[in-house]
Design brief:
This protein is α+β, with helices and mostly antiparallel strands. It has nine helices and four strands, in the order E-H-E-H-E-E-H-H-H-H-H-H-H. The protein has helices at about 10-20, 40, 65-75, 90-105, 105-110, 120-145, 155-170, 180-190, 195-200; strands spanning about 5, 25-30, 50-55, 60. Helix 1 links the parallel strand 1 and strand 2 (about 25-30).
Length: about 210
């Protein structure tokens, strides 16, 4: 049985939610923070990042978007990755969330990777918050254009990743209250049984 490696507070939560929604037969191994840089895990994923899926044949799949695409292709059901492939809009939304939006949080989580002095790090963070504000305004607008309670009108893997970034905003100076549709979405997600199961498996709580 494949094993999904996760860690509290990370984007691996999106893949964990997808596993729960699909009732996919994967083990979920939640590592303590820091274990992703230890030899045992680096032997599995030299990138030292989560999520990763380790297969019984020794193969390893990394990157949240790739894992979500594989989950849809392997375990997709009606309402999830129909026809065993991500739909065009779902693939586009996931690409945007996992690359542009996720990357914009980088200076907040690890400003030292972008500047050495505290003054420079503060400038980098301020610029990052401006970019994040633009992303959240776009996400809010896109959500308002959808028809229903989900980012793409119907529930998709994009919702799992969107939930992650609506949690991360709490760690920044930005406020989710400035984005009422995203706030309502996050509240609904936290009542979802699959989301609550994934949170518990990662030793996390609803916001």
């Amino acid at each position: 049985m494949p094993t999904l490696y996760t860690m509290p507070g990370t984007c691996a939560l999106s893949t964990n939610i997808a596993v729960a929604w699909l009732d996919a037969p994967l083990n979920v191994e939640n590592m303590a923070y820091g274990d992703h840089k230890k030899e045992a895990y680096l032997a599995i994923n030299p990138k030292g990042q989560v999520p990763a899926v380790a297969f019984e044949d020794g193969d390893v799949l990394t990157e949240a978007a790739a894992i979500l695409a594989w989950l849809g292709a392997e375990y997709g059901t009606e309402g999830y990755a129909r026809d065993k492939a991500l739909g065009r809009k779902e693939a586009e939304a996931l690409s945007y969330l996992t690359s542009e939006v996720h990357a914009a949080f980088g200076p907040h989580f690890a400003a030292r990777n972008f500047a050495s002095s505290k003054e420079a790090q503060d400038e980098v963070k301020a610029a990052a918050y401006d970019r994040l504000r633009g992303h959240f305004e776009r996400l809010e607008a896109n959500f308002n254009e959808s028809d229903g309670d989900w980012y793409l009108s119907e529930r998709s893997f994009a919702d799992a990743y969107l939930y992650v970034v609506t949690r991360w905003i709490e760690q920044t100076p930005l406020s989710i209250d400035d984005y009422p549709s995203l706030r309502a979405f996050r509240d609904r997600m936290q009542k979802d049984e699959g989301v609550r199961l994934a949170l518990a498996r990662q030793d996390m709580e609803p916001v």
